[in-house]
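User: For my dataset I need records formatted as: sequence, then structure tokens, nothing else. Please produce one.
Assistant:
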Amino acid sequence: MDRPPCPCGTGASYDACCEPLLAHREQAGTPEQLMRSRYTAYVRGDADHLFRTWHPRTRPDDVRPDPATRWTGLRIVATEGDTVQFVASWEGGEMHEVSRFERRAGRWVYVDGEVEVEVD
């Protein structure tokens, strides 16, 4: 039986890739793994995962993904230390971001990022 691929683009199945993180069974081991799981949470509309993985100091009040946005792909450009540079695409545009992560209470959390948005 074929398992659906993970939206984050690793080529692995969802249940072998981001699903354990979104289901609270595992914690991300690296900033890239957390960033990929957060992209998957946007694709799947999982506000709980976004809330749990966002640093409380920088987290907005409303983290719910826009259900009208149809995400179409993720490309990792570079990773270095606690930063991940990526391009996330949706129907009608793409976002290029350099995200910063921090270890808090033994787990990685998203802090903030420098964003450049391009709309088709």
